[in-house]
Amino acid sequence: MDPPPSPSRPRPPRKLGTFLRFAPPLLDREELLELKDTLDSGWLTRGPKCERFEEACLRELQAESTLALSSCTEALHLGLRALGVGEGDAVVTTPLTFVSTAHAVIHAGARPLFCDIDPADGNLSPALVREFLDAACAPGPDGSRIHRETGLRVGAVLPVHYGGFPADVEGFRGIASECRLHVLEDAAHAFGSLAGGRPVGSRALLRSPGPGLHALAAFSFYATKNVACGEGGLLAGPETVLAKARILSAYGISDARRIWGRYAPRGTWAYDVEELGFKANFTDLGAALGLAQLRRFPEMQERRRRFAAIWSGALSGLAGDLVTLPEEIPGTRSAWHLYPLRLRAGRLAGGRDKAIERLRELNIGASVMFQPVHLFTYYRRALGHREGDFPQTEAFSASEISLPMSPANPVPLVEEAAETLRRLLLDMAG
Ligand SMILES: *Cc1c(COP(=O)(O)O)cnc(C)c1O
């Protein structure tokens, strides 16, 4: 039993009876049946189930075309290559992301140019990108921007929909149109996000910024993401661009369908290789999980919204003073991949790291999304970055705690955890 409450001392936080995991997938009989169906079919890798999954994603996202791939990292990499962004190009992106966003740019042969975030939502903002392009670049002959320091042409802007909160894609299309760039959205968190009532990845939101320019979105089906297939990714966008990515994803074989078709009774063994492609196809095993996940996607999203309301409800009394709560931007809907809570610097004894440590002791799994990309050893070495380069990102990252949002978690346990966190923060505030 708790000690009786006193007006000066809040109740101490109480350890949860079971560990609240950070992001377990919600898997059920549906997944088992779909997997069995795939096993029974005798075909495990890219085949008919991948095509059905691509169609299901196309409907869900209201996309023009979809291409399932081995990961979001590869979707970003091949997306850039299919857009023709590579050697000689730079890509404007955010340092508040998972490292694969920036890795993909370098894998494509281009150079990431980091731009600091808007601390309101953790996203790149068109105004800040515009400011950066005006300050660091000179206009090139065709209207594109040339980065003064490196001489590279800015070929694309790569915003991340941080946590599932949609970045201002309309604003980025305006910049893309004026500065002759492509838009590639890292939508790893944004399957189910809406802007202006349209899904991120939809045909409506991925309209071309101008002649010869395109907009694509890359999604992730990694084990912890909103649609969990273990591993997997998806490109959404115009079919003309996706057709190129499709060839690149399958060794450069011109008709990728032949890879599985060639073993069919009427298949043919002959194929041609047009490009030095990669191995980045999705699998029918992964698609089986994805099809089952999509069938209960609305339910899973509803539960994420419920969890967001539970965290916000418990912590709203501390907002402003001890914490900043994540909020949906008017006119948008977050997919609530993350619940990024920010702690007020200096208000809590021991700070963020201590809070995470204590949460673990209290049986609550929390994480940090993300460590700033530019401060990793590789990025310091490769691009010469150091502390202080992107102060908003660094401050955001240093104060952030991502709370469990998985729909696999039981509601009462999340409710208990929210109350425990509230008490912990009061306790740490002393
Ligand atoms: C998870 C994640 C990725 C990478 O996704 P994979 O499918 O694991 O390659 C890319 N960007 C962001 C922001 C992510 O969180």
Notable traits:
430 residues; alpha/beta; Aspartate Aminotransferase, domain 2; Aspartate Aminotransferase, domain 1; 2 domains; seven-stranded mixed β-sheet; binds pyridoxal-5'-phosphate
Total helix count? 14
- Note the quaternary state here: single chain
Please give the radius of gyration in angstroms: 23 Å
What small-molecule ligands were found?
A: pyridoxal-5'-phosphate
Order the strands across the largest sheet as they lie in space. 1-11-10-7-6-2-3
Number of strands: 15
Query: What fraction, in percent, of the residue positions are helical?
Result: 25-40%
How much is the average pLDDT? Answer: 95
Relevant CATH superfamily of the largest domain: Type I PLP-dependent aspartate aminotransferase-like (Major domain)
How does the helix and strand content classify structurally? alpha/beta
Low-confidence segments, given as residue ranges, are: none
What is the end-to-end distance? 22 Å
Walk me through this protein's architecture.
The protein has 430 residues and is α/β, with parallel strands linked by helices. The chain has two domains: 29-294, Aspartate Aminotransferase, domain 2 (3-Layer(aba) Sandwich); 297-428, Aspartate Aminotransferase, domain 1 (Alpha-Beta Complex). It has 14 helices and 15 strands. It has helices spanning 29-41, 48-61, 72-83, 100-107, 126-136, 169-179, 239-249, 257-261, 284-295, 297-315, 351-361, 377-383, 391-399, 411-429; strands spanning 65-69, 89-93, 111-114, 137-139, 145-147, 153-158, 182-186, 194-195, 198-199, 215-220, 233-237, 323-324, 332-333, 339-343, 400-403. The strands form four sheets. The chain has a seven-stranded mixed beta sheet, with helices on both faces. It has a three-stranded antiparallel beta sheet with strand order 9-8-13, with no helix packed on it. It has a three-stranded antiparallel beta sheet with strand order 12-14-15. The longest helix has 19 residues, at 297-315. 50% of the residues are buried. The model has no long low-confidence stretch (mean pLDDT 95). Pyridoxal-5'-phosphate binds at residues 71-73, 97-98, 100-101, 160, 186, 188-189, 220, 222, 233. Pyridoxal-5'-phosphate (PLP) is lined by residues 71-73, 97-98, 100-101, 160, 186, 188-189, 220, 222, 233.
